[in-house]
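debug: dumping io for the single-chain case to check the tokenizer round-trip. Nothing else runs in this session.
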Amino acid sequence: MLKELEEKYVKRETLGQYVAEVCVGLDDERQAMARLEKDFQARRLTGFSNYESTLDSLRSDPRFVDLLGRMGLKP
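debug: decoded output
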């Protein structure tokens, strides 16, 4: 599933958020944050859909808290 999403991401057929969600499911928070940050820097990440549940394990990560702040969202 991750490989398929990564291929779609390269083709701009999906968002980094969805790749990040799979990474979280695989307990790879570092890669999840890298995907979110990359999309944010590319201005492809402007909000989250359902981030309260799918990315919940990132809530205590200072990088995620910082990202939410830069997006104007509350942690």
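debug: round-trip ok. Residues 16 and 35 are 5 Å apart (CA to CA).
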